[in-house]
Amino acid sequence: MEYCNPGLWRSIVPFFTVLFSSACVCGGIQVRLDPGPNYGNVEMYHNGTWQRACLESFNYFGRNVSHVLCKQLGFNTTRNVAMPQTGKHHGLFWHTGSNCSRGERHLSQCHVGIITNRTSCYGYNIPRIACLSDNETRVDIANHNITVADGLRFSTSCYVYTPHTGFSYHWNHNWKNVSYPRRHFHGKANRTEAGNLTCSVSLNGKTLGSDSTVINVIYPLKRMQSKIIYAKVGDTVSLSETDVSLPPPETFTWRSLDTNSSFVRSVTPPVMSNIQQADAGEYIVMIQQPAYHLTPHAPAYRGNYSFGVQLVKIRVPYPPSIQCEEIVRVANGQSRTVQCKVDSYPRHHMMTWTLATTAGTRTQSSHRDTYHIVNASAGDEGNYTCRATNNLTYPDGQVETGTGTCVIKVKVTSPSGGRSAAESAAKGAPDQETTTSSAVWGGLALVAIVVIGLLVAVIVLVIRHPYTKEVPNGDKPIEMTTVNRAGVAAISGPLYENAQDHRLK
């Protein structure tokens, strides 16, 4: 609803466009209420946009301004009230001065100054009104968005606009009752308890109305923080969150500690998709936050940046995988250790060894990956099954049991390396007749080997020293004639002679 159409004048007299849009000479200031329809913050339409109004001296002339605005909006009501607000509000505002005498029917008929744009406004200059009928009740909290630093105290008020008397106040925080039966509420900010604060007004057990405010608790980043993330293979995980501080972080810089990878920078929390077992490890996340400082009696102002570091450990649980030898041999009476090598995350908390033999099954629980066989006997032979279990924790908090097994076949052999003790026991000892026969045949074989050896020796001697005939002329040397290359005959020395003649020479 408007007093006149400034757009028409702007089309006729372009020269006065700025003048009309600033001073609103023709009274064409459009207004509306948020959330409405008959109560809320006053918004003004200017330069083609709707923004909240910021009216100088509204705390002094608010009642008169409320009557004028309710008339301009078409409400023929007499209980028109200005609902005060507290604190400093940030955002976009159309700011102007206003001084009404209550008799005006449009805001433009009041003493209105030049409209300018502002990014903040104190609560006592923000027009919030209610156009009420005679029997209508309105409950309103002074500030619908409270921002306070963690650990500081805050206060707010619950206003009731009603013709009734004798009513009572009830407060609840995050939908839980708070024992506070007064109009003014005082509390201490706590980041874990930030949220909704509601005031309800009742009369004779009947609720007349209620209103709520949101409590925002500013808290800085933690300088150093660590956490563990459990994930399944294929999951998507976020290494950080936006609620690690208020105001939320502006940038995230992160990398893996297990590699020489470079840092990655983003304005949103880093996310890893399609997690695999190879992604398990440690990651460092550096967070940057704009610092806002608050005091109990001053509005927030922006300071330097603050930084925090998060050490994130990603764990990908998987059930035990076991490696072991298929066959293990141990001599009868000796000791031997068998082992099952377990790979799992988290580490298995229980190892069970089960021995299955022809005589039955026995089980032993242990935390060790090895089993020691002492003084092995036939009763230790059989299939040893090692069974490892661990607890698998998943992101939703569900815990499952992981299991892995491996089978080792143990054979107990005789000390000489012959058949196993079990086989010997099963077959029994040989009879006397078999033993005697074996001894006879063994003796005959030994005699045959000796005879054959002697024959071979004689043959070798005969070959090396062949038989020669008796010399016809006694011990006279046999003269042998050789011919040299010149054809002259020469007498060689004797081929042999007796030892006596040799000594005489």
List keywords for this structure.
Immunoglobulin-like; mainly beta; Mac-2 Binding Protein; disordered N terminus; 4 domains; 15% helix; 505 residues
Detailed description of the structure:
Strands 1, 2, 3, 4, 5, 6 and 7 form a 7-stranded mixed beta sheet that branches. Strands 9-15-14-11-12 form a 5-stranded mixed beta sheet, with no helix packed on it. A 5-stranded mixed beta sheet has the order 16-22-21-18-19, with no helix packed on it. The chain has 4 domains: 1-133, Mac-2 Binding Protein, CATH 3.10.250; 137-219, Immunoglobulins (Immunoglobulin-like, Sandwich); 224-315, Immunoglobulins (Immunoglobulin-like, Sandwich); 318-425, Immunoglobulins (Immunoglobulin-like). By secondary structure, it is mainly beta. It contains 6 helices and 33 strands. It starts with 5 loop residues before the first helix and ends with a helix. Residues 1-27, 295-299, 429-437 and 468-505 have low confidence and may be disordered.
Topology:
Blueprint (H helix, E strand, L loop, with lengths): L5 H7 L4 H7 L6 E6 L3 E8 L2 E8 L1 H15 L6 E4 L5 E10 L18 E7 L5 E5 L5 E4 L3 E5 L3 E9 L6 E6 L2 E3 L5 E5 L6 E9 L2 E13 L5 E7 L6 E2 L12 E6 L7 E3 L4 E2 L8 E15 L2 E18 L2 E6 L3 E5 L4 E4 L1 E5 L4 E8 L2 E7 L3 E4 L8 E12 L5 E15 L7 H7 L4 H33 L16 E3 L5 E3 L7 H6 L1
Parallel strand pairs: 3-5, 9-15, 16-22, 24-31
Antiparallel strand pairs: 1-2, 2-3, 2-7, 4-7, 5-6, 8-10, 10-13, 11-12, 11-14, 14-15, 17-20, 18-19, 18-21, 21-22, 23-26, 25-29, 27-28, 27-30, 30-31, 32-33
